[in-house]
Amino acid sequence: MATVVAIERRRTLWQRVGDFWARHGFAISLLVPCVLYMLFFFVIISIFLVRLSFTHQISIVESEFPSLYNYQELLTSREFRTAFGRTLAFVIVGTPAQLVAGLILAMLINQSFRGRGLVRSVFLLPVAIPGLVTGTIVAFMLFSYPFGHINDFLLGRLFLPQMIKEPINWYASPVIALSLALAAKVWRDMPISMLILLAGLQSISVDQYEAAESMGASAFQRFFYITIPMIVPAISTVLILRSIEVWK
């Protein structure tokens, strides 16, 4: 009797496994390559890098493990503190700037007007330009010293009256140089934020705006009490993705 019960339990177990594989086998077969990829390129390499960070390479053939030498050098390095501060500025200032700029453009494109598709294509152009090209345009064409286009405009060389007597060296001030880099970064990555927020705006029912307007709600109230709460998931997505991208 006990043998029969054990056989029945084993058969039931295999039936459950078979049913589970029949329902989820295709999804599992799709996930396995991704899991193996993440295991090799993320987990294993991360473990190797962590171990390497605790290794002090004294010479070509001699090393010390474990050691905090690399972390001591990093925390006392002036270059690291400067780079970390600039990266933090990009995250704190650049990410909200991308969010605000993307929201403004998304609300503009969300309106119905002739040529909306063309305007949307124009707004998407920055993301199609490689970062190296963007840096070249900003550093060597627009704000170069002394012959950049901005200096040409301010000196009256191109169409405008003269506003300054001497060309401006935009990169003489670290604050101005960092601001220009931030502006270029926001300009290039803003279309991604715009598309995510546009998807959130288009998911809002027009009936909600019409009902609020019929009850006397102003445009300001409709924006803060309908639009913003309804696109919170899109805003969160933009902040998370853009922050991760900037930290890289």
Polypeptide structure, described:
The structure is a single chain. This protein is an all-alpha fold and 248 residues long. It has two domains: 70 residues, no CATH class; 171 residues, MetI-like fold (Orthogonal Bundle), CATH 1.10.3720.10. A two-stranded antiparallel sheet has the order 1-2. Strand 1 and strand 2 form a beta hairpin. Helix 5 packs across helix 7. It is flat and about 85 Å long.
| CATH-defined fold name of the largest domain | MetI-like fold
Largest sheet: 2 strands, antiparallel
- Assembly category: single chain
Question: What Rg, in angstroms, do the CA atoms define?
Answer: 28 Å
Domain module tally: 2
- The CATH H-level superfamily of the largest domain is MetI-like
State the end-to-end CA separation.
64 Å
**H/E element order:** HEEHHHHHHHHH
Given the helix and strand composition, which structural class is it? mainly alpha
- In round numbers, the mean pLDDT is 80
In terms of topology, how is this protein built?
Blueprint: H1 2-53, E1 56-57, E2 63-64, H2 69-75, H3 78-109, H4 116-128, H5 131-142, H6 149-154, H7 174-202, H8 206-214, H9 219-230, H10 232-247
Antiparallel strand pairs: 1-2
Helix pairs in contact: 3-7, 3-10, 4-7, 5-7, 7-10
Short description:
The protein is an all-alpha fold and 248 residues long. The protein contains ten helices and two strands, in the order αββααααααααα. The termini are far apart.
